[in-house]
Structures are given as C-alpha cells and as structure tokens.
Specification:
Length: 123
C-alpha cells in the first residue's frame, strides 16, 4: 500500500521495527511453574537454530489500563502501559524462547501479543 504526501510523492508504508510473538505460558515442570520466566512463540520461527538471532533482544508487552497516567517527560497522559523484558534463551526444539520481564507478566496476558524489538543488535 502506497501513501501520497501533500506534495504528491509516493512513499512506502512504514515498516515495523519489531517481530511479533505470543506469550504461551510460564516455564514450568510437573508440579511447579516459574512466573519469572515467560515462554514466547515468535512468528515465523520454527527451529532452535532460528532463535539465536533473538537472544538478547528487548521485548515489551503493551496493554491498556483502566486509569490514565502521566507519560514521563511530558504533561500528557494516556491509558497505555508497558512491561519490558529481555529474551534470555531458547526453549525446546520448535522455536520458542524464554524471556525475563522486569515485572512478571500477568496470567491474563497468555495468548496475547508481545513485541520483540530489533535491538540491541549483535551482527
């Protein structure tokens, strides 16, 4: 899809600077689950070798809260919040990764979208 600016020149659609992932659950065993480690399934990643690119990348869960809070550094406020984390390790052989967030992800975030940013770069 092309956009037309007020000068008539065509520009390309803005690109995403993140990969999409889904929060599938917490790392767990038969009797215990570790809420500090979230499992993420990255879109388009299907093997352990492909997860190496994402290790060390920052990830964020963006959600909408009930009340508005002030955005740091401005006088504006909105309802959007974010929990930041980092991809730490691959998990299994089918392309899932483990991530540690600053605050543990809430249980109702399971099945929701996580953004995996393309920074910091290791290449």
């Amino acid at each position: 899809m092309k956009r037309i600016t007020k000068f008539g020149a065509r520009t390309a659609k803005p690109t995403r600077m993140y990969s999409r992932a889904v929060f599938t659950g917490y790392r767990r065993g038969q009797r215990k689950q570790r809420e500090s480690q979230a499992l993420l399934k990255i879109e388009g990643v299907h093997s352990r070798n492909e997860t190496d690119f994402y290790i060390g990348k920052r990830c964020v869960f963006v959600y909408k809260a009930r009340r508005k809070t002030q955005i740091p550094g401005t006088s504006k406020s909105n309802k959007m919040r974010a929990i930041w984390g980092k991809v730490s390790k691959s998990h299994g052989k089918s392309g899932a990764v483990r991530a540690r967030f600053r605050r543990n992800l809430p249980g109702d975030a399971m099945g929701k979208r996580i953004r995996i940013m393309m920074y910091p770069s290791r290449i």
